[in-house]
Amino acid sequence: MSAKQGTPSRLERILAFMIAGIIGISVLAFVTVLVASLLGLERSDFAQGLWPLVTAITYVGLPVGFMLIIAMMITGIVRRRGENTKTGSHEG
């Protein structure tokens, strides 16, 4: 196995940072909504200001992060399959 083999591609690194950022922001938005609810904000308060955006991030961010995780898995499988065919290894 060469030193270059098995290292993530630029696309995989970009996907990894996107996943971390989107899921991190989504969890932060979720915690923000929970804390705001505990501090006494009512349902009608979440319909004005930046709160609709914060709740939308909560609803959309985690599914998008999950789809990016699947995309990263697919790119990793394709890369490893390509590396195996270049080296002539047909294991697994």
UniProtKB/TrEMBL annotation:
Alphabetical UniProt keywords: Membrane, Transmembrane, Transmembrane helix
The keyword Transmembrane helix is annotated on this UniProt entry: yes
Transmembrane segments: 14-36, 56-78
Highest taxon listed in the record's lineage: Bacteria
Protein name according to UniProt: Multidrug ABC transporter ATPase
Native organism taxonomy: Bacteria, Bacillati, Actinomycetota, Actinomycetes, Micrococcales
